[in-house]
Amino acid sequence: MPTRPQKGNADPGLDAGIDFKRLLERTLGVAAAIILLALVLITCVDVVGRYFLDAPLAGAFELTEVLLVALVFAALPLATERREHVEVDLLAHAFGHNINRLMVAFGGLFTGAVLLTFAWRLLVHSMKAASDGAVTNALQIPLAPFGYLAAGACLVSAIIAVLRGFYLPDEPGSKVIKEEGAL
Fold first, then answer.
1. Is residue 10 part of a domain?
2. In-domain check, residue 8
3. What does the pLDDT read at residue 89?
4. 107 to each of 1, 83, 138, 166, how far by Cα in Å?
5. Which residue has better confidence, 43 or 25?
6. Residues contacting residue 30 through CB under 8 Å, at least 6 positions apart
7. How many CB atoms lie within 10 A of CB 16?
8. Closest to 109 in 3D by CA, of 150, 160, 153
9. Do the domain assignments include residue 148?
10. The dihedral of CA 18, 22, 26, 31: what is its sign?
11. Is residue 31 one of the residues assigned to a domain?
């Protein structure tokens, strides 16, 4: 399997002409931060209105639901790019370096396949929701755009995971955080 050369403390990630890490941070990272801020504001307005003014925010529950979906799927490619998914290395010490590298490659490719399957099923479900005109109960928010967002995020994450399966770090258990000395 090919490995990317290390550049100091830089991530050996996707750097084929475009800085994908920076692109993800500036788009999805900012979007996730804005969504999180909106969730905080909605919750604060709802709590103040409910307990102090006896007038809760209408549709706060639905807004929270759809914004949480958007937040989770906006952050999914970021977690995949940073290798921040949960990993259990039960067999890492039982095998040698080459077998561990193969296991890391298999993990990346398998993760990519699972995320690609999620993207496909979410796209099919979203297209059905769009054709049916599915909306939330109280606020009538269309559900299809959130499904399309989820499908797109899974697709981007799948691509990143597959690339991670081909471009392995020098050490099979190493992560960017460990390389930078944060752990």
1. no
2. no
3. 75
4. 13, 11, 42, 10
5. 43
6. none
7. 9
8. 160
9. yes
10. positive
11. yes
Each residue's pLDDT tens digit, 121-159? 999 999 999 999 999 898 999 999 999 999 999 999 999
- Over residues 5-30, mean pLDDT: 64
Question: 170 pLDDT band (50/70/90 cuts)?
Answer: low
Prediction pTM value: 0.75
Residue type for position 72 = V
Q: How confident is the model at residue 183, as a pLDDT? A: 38
Q: Which domain holds residue 55?
A: 20-179
Question: Which of 14-28, 56-70, 97-111 is predicted most confidently?
Answer: 56-70
Q: Which tokens belong to 22?
A: 């920076």
Domain total of the chain: 1
In the numeric block, which tokens belong to residue 66?
């759809």
Name the one residue in this structure whose structure tokens are 């790019």.
Answer: 81
Residue type, 75: A
